TrEMBL record:
Domain of life per record: Eukaryota
Protein name, UniProt field: Ankyrin repeat-containing protein
Lineage of the species this protein comes from: Eukaryota, Sar, Rhizaria, Retaria, Foraminifera
Length: 230
């Protein structure tokens, strides 16, 4: 006999918080109900009958604060675009953006730079249109170090998947940009050390970006000859 299945796939980002520390994970519900066999053989999949399960989940998400939704989104393109579309003005007053710190003291810009889910298309609008996060907040955070003395640009060089995305984390002030490009963190890692770890960007293009911004030959040689703490 021909067998028919009803399938539903629900994915949710779930935020766990304990002792003022948080972690976001993705939970996937695969709901399958065999239409010709007894439902008791698939006790979990019987949830598929209850349409209210999905609607209740969506309602819970909508009732969360913007900051909670932003944290749960964890920079996934679909979720970030959703928030940008529905709550554009909330970014300007978000306490999570202005005050949050990761486990190593990294601010929101650092957390974004350190996340490989970021896509250039939405990140450019979020960081450069001035319709979302205020310009002065972005520039202030780009100039702030985390507990290990690293700037957001350093981790962008390591984690972002394109040169265009990396460039979003370069401070606009020439003086501040020069300082960041020519700094060591506390582990003696330079921007060169972070950049050559990136496996998603062509190495020749990465080295060209680094060379264009670290023009002092003496500093360049110092950076490539200095071993990091590891």
């Amino acid at each position: 006999q021909h067998q028919q299945y009803l399938r539903k796939d629900i994915r949710m980002n779930v935020l766990f918080t304990m002792n003022q520390k948080s972690i976001v994970t993705e939970v996937q519900f695969i709901l399958k109900q065999h239409l010709e066999l007894e439902q008791m053989r698939y006790p979990f999949y019987c949830i598929g009958k209850h349409e209210s399960f999905l609607f209740d989940s969506l309602k819970i998400m909508q009732e969360l604060s913007f900051d909670a939704q932003l944290q749960i989104a964890s920079f996934h393109p679909r979720d970030m675009s959703h928030l940008m579309l529905l709550y554009p003005h909330h970014f300007q007053h978000s306490q999570f953006i202005t005050s949050s710190r990761d486990l190593h003291g990294g601010n929101f810009m650092f957390q974004m730079a350190n996340n490989s889910h970021v896509e250039y298309a939405y990140a450019k609008v979020l960081l450069q249109s001035e319709n979302f996060i205020p310009f002065d907040v972005i520039q202030t955070q780009l100039a702030q170090k985390n507990d290990f003395g690293a700037y957001p640009l350093m981790f962008a060089l390591w984690k972002q998947s394109s040169l265009d995305a990396i460039k979003l984390f370069i401070p606009k002030s020439p003086e501040q940009a020069h300082l960041v490009w020519n700094s060591f963190d506390r582990l003696k890692m330079s921007c060169i050390g972070y950049g050559v770890r990136n496996e998603k960007v062509d190495m020749s293009s990465m080295l060209r970006l680094l060379r264009d911004n670290i023009q002092d030959e003496h500093k360049w040689q110092n950076f490539i000859e200095t071993p990091d703490a590891n």
